[in-house]
Amino acid sequence: VAGPASVFSKAEAMRPGTYRLHIASPSGQAVLTNAGFHLAGTCTLQQLPVAIDTVIVAGGEEAGVRAAISEHGMAKWLARVAPHARRVTSVCTGAFVLAAAGLLDGREATTHWRVCDLLQTLRPQTRVQRERIYVHDGPVWTSAGVTTGIELALALVEDDLGHEVSMEIARTLA
């Protein structure tokens, strides 16, 4: 969450009015990250704006991703929202939420290298790319891991605002 948010906040500072970030969780409560800190200030999925340009689904440890899909309805929510968004993306194991929503069927995608085989097994209709930092297939973008989430966000900014803006942001993050 932090890496891509940094990229988009820098893009917003450079080009005001370009991005408006919202961080949401199913309950709207603080989320305990696998790094052991709480991500506070989230809103509920229902509190998000009706029109969402880009959805970014963050990953996490297996138990948390499974709970997001099965107990918290993230895949169902995403399946409802995705057709109305310009693009849907995932960072790391967030790809499993996209897969559960059926958004990776017939597409190329990637996820963390440790679980590429699991994604391919669970969703054989997805063409898992094991050696890619990020994959862009139509309106769906997926990234391989936590650090590659920054690369994904830079690619999204490049898609929106051009190569020069993306490179300037990358230089400030180096």
Care to describe what's here?
The chain has 174 residues and is an alpha/beta fold. Helix content is 39%, strand content 17%. It has seven helices and ten strands. The strands form four sheets. Strands 5-6-10-9 form a four-stranded mixed sheet. Strands 1-4 form a two-stranded parallel sheet. Helix 1 (2-14) packs across helix 7 (163-173). The two termini are 18 Å apart.
Mean of residue pLDDT?
94
Task: Spell out the helices and strands N to C.
Answer: HEEEEEHHEHEHEEEHH
Q: What's the tally of helices?
A: 7
Shape: globular
Strand order of the largest sheet: 5-6-10-9
N- and C-termini, Cα separation: 18 Å
Q: Report low-confidence residues grouped into runs of 5 or more.
A: none
Strand coverage percent = 15-25%
The radius of gyration over CA amounts to 15 Å
Sheet having the most strands? 4 strands, mixed
In total, the number of strands is: 10
State the helical fraction. 25-40%
Give me the secondary-structure category.
alpha/beta
What attributes characterize this protein structure?
174 residues, alpha/beta, four-stranded mixed beta sheet, two-stranded parallel ribbon, 10 strands, 39% helix, globular
